[in-house]
Amino acid sequence: MRRIELVNSVTKVINVFIETEVLEFLREVFHKTRVRSQSESKAKIDATVFFDMFSKLSIAYKNFTATEKLVVQLMDLQYLFEASFWGQISNIFFAETDTRRETIILLRRSVDALNFMSDQTPKILNLLGREAISDVSKRNGFTPKKSSIITIILPEDNTTSASPKRISMVMDGISGLYNVHAQLLGKEVDRLVVVACDSGSDKSFDFLGVAKVVEQMKETFFGVWDRLRLSKSEKFKAISDNFVQGLGVIEKIADLENEGKISNEEAQILKRTFSVSVQKLVDGGAIIPELNDVPTEEPRKLFRAAPKRLTAPEKKSKNKTNSKPKPDKKNKE
Hints:
Layout: H1 3-20, H2 22-33, H3 38-44, H4 47-62, H5 66-74, H6 83-90, H7 97-119, H8 121-127, H9 132-139, E1 149-154, H10 164-184, E2 193-199, E3 203-208, H11 211-230, H12 235-238, H13 241-245, H14 249-258, H15 264-283, H16 299-302, H17 307-311
Helix pairs in contact: 1-5, 2-7, 4-6, 10-11, 10-15, 14-15
């Protein structure tokens, strides 16, 4: 699990608890258990509120990612999303003495756990933060903001690892892609900066650049993803001239050439750089986190790296370079 994935998942779970106000509600219930007169407590508790709270948490849990569900489990708070807990709590004022005592203990433990998570966990997350991004931004003349950062993830599994060759390939691809979009937008090239690296189940790299250029880079990733998803042929055979042409960038380059803003030679270099960069990113299996927000095929499977391209040795020529040419019999005297 990558650090940023853990931070985002914990933050998401905390936000759900804040938005549902489950802590405040459980505090109120716990306070009412201390009231001596049970009849007074019954009058102040609306049973439908328990059901409403469970419904909110249940819906939120269904939308959790696998990592977010793991966070809930590690925090030992999974029972908060179960109907049995809310059924037990809703009957706290009607239960027998022993059962009521057990429920009060559970209720107190829940309040303490939620208190810790809302008060202390954010402080722990700050230790895992990326303060360097702000410093790097200022040193390179950027205004630190989220739209200026693009995160590239290299998924790993039992058959695919982040080898130096694969990382180098993706670095070249992302650099070339940035420079093409920067030139199309009239921005300075070669200003993309690596501001953070992370590892875990996958490897990831955060790049800082001009916000408008970064936005266009992400659009290219979405375009490649759409075309790969709809392509009936094998992924690595699909990266053809027609494939790249459909991404719209080649047309923009042609427009600049027709308008006389760039020469034919510059246009050809940009087209070639863009095509090669896209090929390298696809071969390297690079994805961006935003692709996970699209409810279709999982990006890490669609953008699976090409192991053969990454590991295949160069073919050696059968003819020896130092072999002498055979004499021509016709010209032989």
